[in-house]
Design goal:
The chain folds into two domains: 101 residues, no CATH class; 43 residues. It contains five helices and five strands; from the N terminus they run αβββαββααα. By secondary structure, it is of the alpha+beta class. The longest helix is centred in the C-terminal third of the chain and has 12 residues. It has a five-stranded antiparallel beta sheet with strand order 3-2-1-4-5. Helices cover 29% and strands 26% of the residues.
Length: 180
């Protein structure tokens, strides 16, 4: 039995990411954000893998966030904090134009939330406590010592994104760092 060839060729391609042509075909989509992640994807223009921010939804395909969509999403959900985006409801539409030398339809997030939706309720994320003497402490100290050339405040800011660091432990870590 022959395949039906009366379809757009792109329907035969398999992508985990929503494409502009799919939104044009189905119309604007109202979606609920399930997760925000970073992924390595191949960028054909740079011919290398690059890290991108990806929005995953409660249904359907994910989208890669570009600069324009990050700004629109921040406006729609009234926060640049990604944890606050989870549970948020947005509308995905398209913008027709010439992108990287080719005419097509780009995914766009509307900068206003859909009518009747409320901002997501967010439970603050509790970070694990960095405690002196445990395995994570030893790893953090080794990392600080190995990176003495990097200012302590810069390194500590990275640690504080992963762990709760008390002021007393911060002073001890700074001593272990021994740098500037």
């Amino acid at each position: 039995m022959a395949e039906d060839l009366n379809v757009d060729w792109r329907e035969w391609t398999d992508s985990e990411y929503l494409a502009g042509w799919e939104v044009v075909k189905s119309g604007d989509q109202t979606l609920t954000i399930k997760n925000v992640t970073k992924k390595l994807v191949h960028n054909p223009r740079q011919n290398k893998k690059v890290e991108v921010v990806v929005l995953e939804f409660t249904q359907g395909k994910s989208i890669v966030l570009n600069k324009i969509n990050r700004k629109s999403l921040t406006l729609a959900l009234k926060s640049p904090i990604m944890a606050k985006w989870i549970g948020g409801v947005i509308t995905v539409t398209t913008e027709h134009g010439t992108w990287f030398g080719e005419e097509g339809d780009a995914i766009r997030i509307k900068s206003t939330a859909p009518t009747g939706t409320k901002p997501p309720l967010v439970t603050p994320i509790k970070l694990p406590v960095l405690a002196k003497g445990d395995e994570k402490w030893d790893g953090a100290v080794k990392w600080l010592v190995d990176n003495k050339a990097t200012p302590f405040d810069e390194l500590c800011a990275k640690l504080e994104k992963q762990y709760e660091v008390t002021p007393a432990l911060k002073r001890q870590l700074e001593e272990k760092h021994g740098g500037k």
